[in-house]
Amino acid sequence: MTIQIFPRLEIPETLAAGPGPGNTDARVLQAFAGAGVADHMQADVLRGMIECKHMLRDIWGTQNTYTFAVAGTGWSGLDAMFSAVMPGDKVVAFSNGTFSGIDSLTLRIKAATQAELAADSLNPQAASVTVIEVPHGQSVSAETVDAALAEHKPKWAFMAHWETGSGRVNDIRGFSDACERHGVMGLVDAVSSLGVADFSIDDYPGIAGWASCPQKGLCCLPLTYAPVSFREEYVHSLKATGAYTYVHNPIFEARHWGIVDGADVEKGSYHRTHSGYAVAAFHESLRLTLQEGRANRAESYRMHEAALRDAVTAMGCKVTSNMTSLVVLNLPDDLAGREMELVQNCRAEGFGIWPTLSAPVQIRIGILNQLRPSAIWEIVGRFADAMRALGADVDQAAVDAILDQHYAPAVAAQ
Length: 414
Ligand SMILES: *Cc1c(COP(=O)(O)O)cnc(C)c1O
Hints:
Blueprint: E1 15-16, H1 26-34, H2 43-60, E2 66-71, H3 74-82, E3 91-95, H4 98-111, H5 114-119, E4 129-133, H6 142-152, E5 156-160, E6 162-163, E7 168-169, H7 172-182, E8 185-189, E9 207-211, E10 225-230, H8 232-241, H9 250-253, E11 259-260, E12 263-264, H10 276-292, H11 294-314, E13 318-319, E14 326-330, H12 339-348, E15 351-352, E16 354-355, E17 363-366, H13 373-389, H14 396-413
Parallel strand pairs: 1-15, 3-4, 3-5, 5-8, 8-9
Antiparallel strand pairs: 2-10, 6-7, 9-10, 11-12, 13-14, 14-17, 16-17
Helix pairs in contact: 1-10, 2-10, 6-7, 11-13, 11-14, 13-14
This protein binds pyridoxal-5'-phosphate.
């Protein structure tokens, strides 16, 4: 047998202009690389986790004691949140794109009975779960949520705050109000909105559980932590039913973050091996978020998304999204159907835009941590080049004029 040792893996610098991950901030990478070797019970690592917990409460806008972060990616935090959903639990889930679709699958897996899971283990049809499908490109509305909760009276309701697959903002106010009205515990996928939108989860008392991710609004890809936050009623329910997991049971996981029996304690206790590198990086990303300020950052996303939207619209593209961290668009009619080809051409050149991951095929261009006029100019310029390469007749002067118009006030103010 021959042993093959591959050459050292080199990964190039690309322009990450997709729906996520965003460009990890240089300060975050520095914190990651600069951390010393320390075990997961070393005093500064534990202190860092406690400080992260407090910063997370400010970023989420909450007094929830059970606010901490789950090691891993967005799905890790979501899995921890969904761990309280037990076989046979009545659930209504709203799906309007790729991610809320996967969340709905997770809920069908969690709520399926043993027989239902065995009957179709990768796609169980749980009788207790109702998935309301909202067409791609549309938002989940208050009316849709209210009608479904009134009809089904579930224990849990689920919605994505921002559905990154179709680029749509869903009505979190309507969702929370409907949950309160019908005595339902809301669960929300806030993977794409935390650190981008300016919201405080304590303003939405109908929502009992929230889960986000490290690498979108928080600019912290080096495999770190998925922020979560739970209201008391969620924790009571979880305590009462238990969950079929040790590692992702939020009550267990919270202990390492210094949360025991519903109260803060001075020092965390062992749950799993945390990485000092990851804690340092995550800590820095939270500091960065608070230093910039939630409201400032949200305003900056609004401004740059508007510039990008108007620029691609001037190229004849049709934007169907309303999130501020990305645009989801269709190509002009004469290039319709060539979206995937254009995305592949861009990606081959290190310009990392994305297609949609479920039908219909659209193009997604993101601006996570690209909140500078020069970055938007570059993204717009490279996208225009890619359209020209497919034969489009892009009026560069018109596009430039639009960006000039958007950025003139900012430049004048400098
Ligand atoms: C990106 C995303 C996820 C998945 O997050 P990972 O970090 O890839 O695990 C889930 N939900 C939404 C809304 C997302 O945007």
